[in-house]
Amino acid sequence: MSTSVSPDLRRIWRGARVPLALLLLVFVTGLVLLLSRGDQTTGALEPGSYQPEGSRALAKLLGSERVDVRAVHTLADASGALENATLLVTQPDLVPPGELAELRKRSAHVVLVAPGPEVLKGLLPGVQAIGDGEVRTLAPACTVGAAVAAGDATMGGIRYHATDPGARLCYRDGGGAALVQVGDGHGTVTVLGTPAPLTNDRIADQGNAALAMRLLGQHPRVVWYLPSADDPALAGGKKSITDLIPAGWRFGALQAGIAVVLLALWRARRLGPVVTEPLPVVVRAAEAAEGRARLYRRGRAAGHAAETLREASRSRLRSVLGLPPDAGPAAVVETVSARSGRSGAEVGAVLYGPPPADDPALVRLADELDKLESEVERL
User: Fold this and answer.
1) Core-most of 106, 174, 191, 264, by most CB within 10 Å?
2) Between 3.40.50, 3.30.1380, 3.30.70, 1.10.287, what CATH number should domain 56-232 receive?
3) H/E stretch holding 156
4) How far apart (Å, rounded) are the C-alpha atoms in residues 370 and 338?
C-alpha cells in the first residue's frame, strides 16, 4: 500500500493561514485609511483637495462668506451654472477659444489661470503673453480694486503685455504684468499668470487670501471649472500625432520610405527552388536507444527509465493478451497472473511497483520484465 505525500486541507491551512492573515490585515488597514479620508479629491486647484497645490482653504473661505462654490469638470456643466456667477477656469488652454468666448458671454466675471497665446488670441486679442517670470512677492501698483485692497501678493509666472487701452495691469515684473483685467460690454476678464495665490500652501502668505477672495467673491456663486481631457465636448480640439507633424516632414518620410523599398528590391537575394539533400548522418535505432540510456544514467533518472520500460512491457502484454490499450492496472495484473501462473502481488510489483533506487535495481527490473513477457508469450 502506497503512502500519499500530497498535502491535505489541514496542512494547507497551517501553511497558508499566516500569509492570509497578513493579507487580510493589509486589506483592512487600507480600507480603514480610505474610509477615514472621507469624500476628498486630489489635484491642482481642486476646491476639495487638501494637498499643497489644492484649493480647499480658499473654497472654505468663500463658503464662509456665503459664496456658493460649484466645482465642474465638463463644458456642459460649466455652461449650465453660469447665471450671475464668477467663472474660474483653472486650465484654459484645454478649452477651445470659441467655447471660452461663449462662456464669457454668460458669465458676470471670468478668471483665467495662466492662459496661453492661443486662448488670449481668441478671447483677449489685446493681451499677449511675453514670457515667464519668477513667482515671488510683488506689489500691485495698479488701480484694480481687488489688487489694491490685497496689497503685496505672491505673483509672477507668465508675464502679459496689453495693447488694449481698457486693460489694467497689476503686479508688474520686468516689462510685463502677472495680473491683467479687461472690462468691456461682454463683462470682465481677469488673467492670472500663476495659480500661487489660490493654493493651500500659499493662501496665507502676504495678501493672497484677500486677492483671491475679492476676485472670486464678487458674485453669489463661483463656477470652479477644471477642464478635463476626457470631456467629450473638448474632443474636437484634440489633434492626432500626424496633425502635429509638418507637411514637409511627412513628404520627406514618404520619399524615404519609397527609397528604402526600392533599395530592398534591388539588394534582395533571389531564392531558387527548394533543394532536397540527403541527411549527412544516419543514426541507427540501437544507437539512439543507447544514447538515451546514457542520458538517463547521467541524470540519475532510474525511476523515469524504469517507468519507460514498464510502460513498454505493459503495452506489449496488452497486445499479446488481447486487452484494450486503456486497460487498467487491475485487469492487466489479473490477466497476466492467470496466464503466467505467478501471484497477483508478484506481477503487480513487477509491472506497477515502486521505482528502483539505483542502476543495479533497474537492471534487475529489466530482467524481471523480460522474464515475465517470455512466460506470457510461451504459454
Assistant:
1) 191
2) 3.40.50
3) strand 153-162
4) 18
